[in-house]
Write a structure and sequence with these properties.
Distance between the termini: 36 Å
Number of helices: 7
Shape: globular
Helix content: 10-25%
CATH topology: Cathepsin D, subunit A, domain 1
Number of domains: 1
CATH class: Mainly Beta
Order of helices and strands: HHEEEEEEEEHEEEHEEEEHEEHH
Radius of gyration: 20 Å
Structural class: alpha+beta
Length: about 290
């Protein structure tokens, strides 16, 4: 453990956490002695046992659950299906970065990733982070009318993130939030079906994305898969095999047959809270402009 005795107000005063437990690959560590997974495995081996260089993350979806991190493996009860694995790109850099073969919204391929993109799987990011150059196209493809119920729980565009051997998908419940329609942000839903009888005119489903550009070698085509993905999918991080696993998370049903609430993000909080450890310093700097 390393303790800080003094920190600058910018940006740490705005953070809502008290500390960080780094679970990156050894490439981010000053030495093996500073890598948590390596130290954990070595400590267990010294006592005559063994443990995998692996951890897994489960994010709760409702008040009847508790989020959980498992060291040394994963818990089958959190999985609806089998784990699918994809290799880490450039593991010597230390980040849990994977290759994206393509991005699709329904059947429309995002042109930004025609030659491939990368994604960092990051528990410290509250939203899906998108490079600025890809943001307008993806935003337009994902925003859509709000159902009469006033939420974004119904039908809408599906975002498909395709890896080499499998893909994961997000629906409106994971990526969108209903917001008031105004003259400034009044969307034009061209070719998206009937928007008068089954949808609201005072609301629209806004994609809750954040733009974040990272320089080389991480960027420029780097997406960050944050909470929306990690809540829907149980993720496993294997430092030994240098791979990341995704499996549909098994969530408890809410009592009394109530519908599971979707993620709630207050717009003013999104604007004030540093949304990602990858871009915290750049984010704080941008607020001063």
């Amino acid at each position: 453990m390393i303790a800080a005795t003094a920190m600058s107000e910018d940006p740490f005063k705005s953070f809502e956490f008290d500390g960080i437990m780094g679970l990156g690959l050894s490439g981010l560590s000053q030495s093996a002695a500073f890598n948590f997974l390596n130290v954990l495995r070595s400590s267990v081996q010294d006592k005559g046992s063994c443990i995998m260089d692996t951890f897994s993350v489960f994010l709760a979806d409702n008040e009847d659950e508790e989020s959980e991190i498992t060291l040394g493996g994963w818990v089958d009860k959190h999985l609806e299906d089998e784990i699918s694995w994809t290799p880490v790109e450039d593991p010597e850099m230390g980040h849990w970065i994977v290759n994206i073969k393509s991005l699709r919204v329904n059947n429309e391929v995002l042109s930004f990733c025609d030659k491939g993109c990368k994604a960092a799987v990051d528990t410290g990011t509250s939203l899906l982070a998108v490079p600025q150059a890809a943001f307008p196209e993806l935003y337009e493809l994902l925003r859509h009318p709000t159902p009469l119920e006033g939420d974004c729980e119904g039908n809408g565009p599906l975002l498909h993130i395709e890896f080499e051997e499998f893909s994961i998908s997000l629906g409106p419940r994971e990526y969108a939030q209903a917001e008031p329609t105004s003259r400034k942000n009044k969307p034009k839903f061209a070719n998206k079906g009937n928007t008068t009888e089954t949808t609201r005119k005072d609301l629209f489903c806004r994609p809750m994305l954040m733009s974040l550009d990272m320089p080389e070698p991480l960027g420029p085509k780097l997406f960050i898969l944050g909470e929306p993905i990690l809540r829907k999918y149980y993720t496993v991080y294997d430092a030994g095999e240098k791979r990341v696993g995704f499996g549909r998370a098994q969530h408890r049903s809410v009592k009394n047959g109530q519908k599971l609430p979707g993620p709630v993000h207050a717009p003013h909080e999104l604007q004030r809270t540093p949304p990602s450890m990858f871009g915290a310093f750049a984010y704080r700097k941008s607020l001063k402009k």
